[in-house]
C-alpha cells in the first residue's frame, strides 16, 4: 500500500482517467465526454485525410492540412500515452507493468500507434507513392472507432453466428464464378480475345454479372454467349437471395429468442 | 356559452368542416369526400409540375399550365384558410386562438403554405433558376399527402423500430465505402487519375459498385484494381442483404405479434 | 330426362370431355393427358411466335412457320369449340345454355378466342405493324397457361395478401423517384440539358438508379449531382429491401400457419 | 473366410484405405489427412487450369504447367484406382465385384475419370479448340469436391425443399421476360432494329433489366420504350424479392424446426 499522498493522488488520477478513456469502465449510459471528443477527432481526421487526397481541394491549402494533421496527430499521441499509462488499471490485461506491456502489443494499441503516424509526415518528402500509403494509414484510424462501437461488434457476432452458411454461399458463388467464366471463355474466347481470351479475363465479366453490378464494359457478342450470360444473370439473383435469406433468418431468430427470454421472465399465467 | 343563433351556426359549420378536413376526425371508413377531392388535386398539381418542366410539353401551352397552377394554388389557398380556421377544433393543438397560432407554425401548415406558393408565380419573371426552385416547391406539395397516409406513417414506424440496426448497416456501408475507395485510389490512382486520382473521386465508382448499380462509366483498368473491384462487388451483396434481413425480421416480428395478440383474445382451449 | 340413347351417348361424351378439359374436374393427380397435350401446344405456339419475329430465323422458312401457325390455330379452334360445348357441364357457369353464354363472355374464353386469331393470318398482308400486333396476340396465348397453374394463382394470392404493404412500398418508390429526379433536374439541368433538362427526362436516370439497374447511359457530371446520385443509389437498396422484407414475412407467415394447422391435428402429448 | 495371412493383410489394408478415402467412413471429425491432401490437390489443379488459360501467364512456362498437370493427373489416377479397389468395402454399392462394377459406372467415379484426363494431354496437339475443351474438363474436377461438402449438399437440400416455389418464380420470370421483350420489340423495333428488331433480340435487353444487371449496351430510345423499361425494372425488383422471400422463409423455418426439436429433448420444467 502506498503511504505517499502525492502517489495516491496520481493513482486516483489514473483511475479517473481510465474510467473516462475505457468505454466499458464508464458507469453511465453512452460514451464519456472525453471519448465523445476523441470520437469526433477520429471522424474529422478521416474526413481531412479523404479531402486531402483531392488535388483541387489540397492545392493552395497545404499548410492548413498540415496543421490539421499535426493537431490530430498530437491528440492521438496524448491519447495513446494516456491509454498506455491507464492500461495498468485494465483487469483484461492483468494489471501492473506486465499488463501495460501486454496492452502495448495488443491490436487496439498498435492501431492507435499507426493512426499517430501522421505526426511523422514531416520527415516524408513529396513522393506520391509514399504519401498515398500514409493516407491509407490515416484512413485506418477509422479502425480506432472499433473501440466504441459495441453495436458493430454485436452485428458482427450476428453475422458470425451464421458464418458457416455465409461461407457456404461464398463457396457456391466461387464455383458459379468459375463455371460461368470457363463457359464464356470457351464460347466467346475467339470473338473477343481481349476480354474473354482466358478464364481469369472472363472472370471480370462474370463477377460483374453474378453480383448484378453489370458495368457493361464487357458484354458477350455471340448468341450462345448471350444465352449463357442470361443464365448467369438469373443465377446471380439466387446468389443475392442466398445470403439475404440466411441473414433474414438469423435476425428473425435473434429477435424471437429475445422475445422468448422476456416471456420466461414474466410468467403469463398458471399452467 | 353563445346565445346568438348565427354564431352557433358558424361554430356548427366549423365543426362540420373540421370533421371533413381532419382525416382522424372522420367517423367513417376511408377519407371524407372533401379530402378525396384534395388528394386528387395534390396528385394533379404534382403531375402538372412534373410535365411543365419538360419544354417539349410546356412550350405552346404556357397559358394552360399557368391556368392550372392558378386553379390548384387557389384550391390550396382555400384549403389552407379552412384548415387554419378549423384548427381551433383540433384538440391536438389545444383549441382556441392559441391552438390556431400553434397550428399555423406546425409543419403541416408550413408545407401547405409552401404548396400554395404557385399563386405568386405571377410576380416571378422568366429566370430559369428561380423557376426551377419554384417547381421543386410545387413537387413538395407531395408532402401534403403525408396527412392522409396513415399507412405510410405505420410503415415509417416499422422502419423506425429498427432505425438503430439500419443506422448500423449504414455506418458499415460508409466504412466499406471509405475502405474500398482508398484502396482503389492507391491502386488505380496512377492509371486513371481523372476518376481514381483522389479518394472522393474513387468514391463515385465505389458507391456505384457497392450498391450494385454499376453505371460502368468508371471501371478499374489494372489487374489488382479489378481484383479489389470484385471483392467490393461481393461485399456490396452483403450490404444489400443486411438491411433486407433486418427489415424482413422486423416485418415478420410485427406479424407474429399481431397473431399472438389475436391468440390471447380467443382462448384456444383449457390448459 | 332424355330417353334417346344417342342423345345420352352425346351427354356422356360431353361429360367425359369436360372431365378431361377442365383441370378442376380431373379426379386424378396432375393434368389429364388431353390438357398435357394442350399445355405442350401452347408452349410450342409461344416458342414459334418468338422465333418467327427474328428475320434470320424466319426468312426462307416462311412456309414452315405458316404451317405451324395453322396447325396450332386449328388445335386452339377445336379446343375452343370443345370448351364452349362442355361449359354447360361446368357448375361455375350455372349450366345449360345460359352457362354456355356466360362462359363465352368469360375472360378465359376470350383469351382462347384471341389465341386462335393466328388462323386469320391468311387475310393479313405483309404490313409489319399489323404483323407485330399479331405476334403480340400470339404471345398472349401464354395467358392460356393461367388455366393450369393453380400454383401461380396460389403465389399470386400470397402476394395479394400483402398487396396493401406492397402498394405502400410502390407509393414510397414513386415519391423517391419524384424527389430524386426533381433534385437532379435542378442540379444537373444546366450541365446536361438533354438528359436532365426536365423532370420526366431525369426520371429515366432516376429509375435506373433506384432499381440498381444502372444502365450508365446517363450519369450525373457535377459534384453535387454525384453526391445526390450516391444518396439515391443507397436509397434504392432500401427500396429493394422493403418488398423483399414484406414478401419474406408473408412467406414465413404462411409456412408457420401451415405448421400450426398440422400441430392442432396431431396432438403432441398430454400437458 | 480367408486363411492366408498375406490376403488378410491386403483386406486389412483395403479397409484402412477405405476408411481414409470415404469421408462418411471416417470416424473422427472433419476429413481424414488423405482426403485433406486430395482436397488441396483438387483446388491446386483447378487453379492451375484457370491460370494456364491466360497466355500472359502460360507463355514461357509451358513445361512447368505440363509438369503440374502430369503430377495432378497421376495423383488423380492413383486416387481413382484406390477408390475403385476400396469400393468393394462400400456397403452403398453392395460390396464384392458387383459393387466395384456398380461404383465404376456411378457419377462420382465418372467425374474422377474425367478429371484424370489431363494425363492424356500428351496425345493432344496444339489445336486451341480441343485445348479449351480439355480446360473445361479440368475445371470439372471442381465437381470432385462434391464428395467432401456435406454442407453444400445440406444447402442444396434446403433449396430443394422449396424447389416448387423457386420453379414457380422462375416460371413467372420467364413470363415477365417474354411479355417485356414482346412489348419492347413492338415499341422499339423500328427505332433500333439491330437490338430490338425481334423478340429474341429484345430478350437480351429484357434479361439484363429484369435481373437489374443493366449492362447499358442496349437502352430504349423512344419515350414509350423508356416508360416500359421503367416498369420492367421495377418488376425486376419484385423478381429479386420473390426467391429471396422464399429462401428467407425456408431458412427461418429450418432454424425454428431445429429449436423446437431441441425444446422437446430438454424439458423446460413441469407444466
Automatic annotation (TrEMBL), chains A, B, C, D:
Record-annotated membrane-spanning stretches: 34-52, 64-83, 103-125, 166-187, 227-255
SUPFAM superfamilies to which the protein is assigned, alphabetical: Voltage-gated potassium channels
Superkingdom: Bacteria
Biological process terms in GO annotation: action potential
Localization (cell): Membrane
Gene Ontology CC: voltage-gated potassium channel complex
Entries under Pfam families matching the protein: Ion_trans
Keywords: Ion channel, Ion transport, Membrane, Potassium, Potassium channel, Potassium transport, Transmembrane, Transmembrane helix, Transport, Voltage-gated channel
Residue ranges annotated for the Ion transport domain, each copy included: 34-258
GO molecular function: voltage-gated potassium channel activity
Membrane topology qualifier: Multi-pass membrane protein
Record's keyword annotation contains Transmembrane: yes
Name this protein carries in UniProt: Putative potassium channel, VIC family protein
Species per Swiss-Prot/TrEMBL record: Mesorhizobium alhagi CCNWXJ12-2
